[in-house]
């Protein structure tokens, strides 16, 4: 990928193995002269695929926790984006680089889902995501969501404050950052077969950011468990930062001393940095951030400093003037 000339988000479809080639290869296998001989092999393959699908679709033992009690501390200045719109306009590069990724993301098996908590902690632990959710409990919050690509939405997430996971982990005093990692499974995620991306997707926050009440681990949206394209079963929501910080489908939380490098920062540090706080006055190197398109209505609104969450988070950045806080 030529990351200098192209936006990180704009990998042309021509660089992805075209779907019709995948399908025509399958047709060849099934319809060719060797079809009979291949039948038992294909049968085994289908059984395997069926098992994977079944595991992915096991009933959610926490389904009864939705809808969770609404926390109205974080009021919105705009209506919630229609679920149909939100669930069909996504960034999930593990599957493909277009916004139309919902169908492909359904291939992700989300149950069982093991979450590792390690690094500078008293005792590293591995937990089943369903057990973690049950243990911590859920609430609902409506957040704005602002992508670095200059569009925005509003979502009713269900989940829990990241601070609760931090206190469960009991990190050592030397931990300065929390590093989060998405699953790595190129078998189900075709985007992860594209070697020019430094998979797995990684993101990080300072401990002060992670323990700010606004930092949220979302497990559901719109009053039900999370749709896969939004990053089931656990995704971050840090609404004062550009959307690429809100890592999806997390499998690992590590407490570390060194500042983690996110996937986009590794690809193009001049455009996607560690802090990535929303600021209308600091343009992206290739476009303005002064306004944003409201997805679903097409309306254009002025971008808000910290995406409108300054009263809750601005203090986190006092004394950090030498840092590139806005991109
Ligand atoms: N997390 C992973 N693992 N993979 C991704 O491609 N895209 C990011 C973020 N988290 C992404 C991710 C970007 S660029 C944005 S804007 C949001 O997810 C999009 O979240 P949404 O699809 O729920 O709107």
- Kindly identify the CATH topology of the largest domain: Sulfite Oxidase, Chain A, domain 2
Succession of helices and strands: HHHHEEHEEHEEHEEEEHEEH
Assign an overall shape.
globular
Instruction: Compute the CA-based radius of gyration.
Output: 21 Å
The CATH C-level class name of the largest domain: Alpha Beta
What CATH architecture label of the largest domain applies? Answer: Alpha-Beta Complex
Describe the largest sheet.
7 strands, mixed
Structural class: alpha+beta
The helix content, as a percent range, equals 10-25%
This entry's quaternary arrangement is single chain
Q: Averaged pLDDT, please?
A: 87
Report the CATH superfamily of the largest domain.
Oxidoreductase, molybdopterin-binding domain
Give the percentage of residues in beta strands.
15-25%
Number of domains: 2
Terminal CA distance: 21 Å
Low-pLDDT runs: 1-53
The number of distinct β-strands equals 12
Notes on the protein architecture:
Strand 3 (139-147) and strand 4 (151-161) form a beta hairpin. This protein starts with 18 loop residues before the first helix and ends in a 14-residue tail after the last helix. Mean pLDDT is 87; it is low at 1-53. The chain has 9 helices and 12 strands. The protein has 327 residues and is an alpha+beta fold. It is globular and about 45 Å long. The protein has 2 domains: 13-54, no CATH class; 60-317, Alpha-Beta Complex (Sulfite Oxidase, Chain A, domain 2), CATH 3.90.420.10. The longest helix has 22 residues, at 35-56. Strands 3, 4, 7, 8, 9, 11 and 12 form a 7-stranded mixed beta sheet that branches. A 5-stranded mixed beta sheet has the order 2-1-10-5-6. The site of ligand MTE has 17 residues, from strand 3.
